[in-house]
Here is the input.
Amino acid sequence: MALDGFIELEHGKYITLDLHGMSVQDAYGELIYAINNLDANCGSILVVHGFNLGTTLKNYIRNQFVHSAVVEKINIDAGRTLLKIKK
Here is the structure.
């Protein structure tokens, strides 16, 4: 996507975590694993939750997911949210 270069320029290195088709419970587990194992060179996780097949994951990530390492959530577009992680 065209915004991907902008995301790195604006927010630094990140990893992408695709949660399409997962339940909230499975997505939670993947998020926790990704946060706990994030490389020291990366400061963010770009979560691809989608929105075309429903907004459950999108709403969960943006409104309900909480982790002490997440310092900011940035809505990139309708299907992606960037989680800024404290180092």
Q: What stands out?
A: The chain has one domain: 3-85.
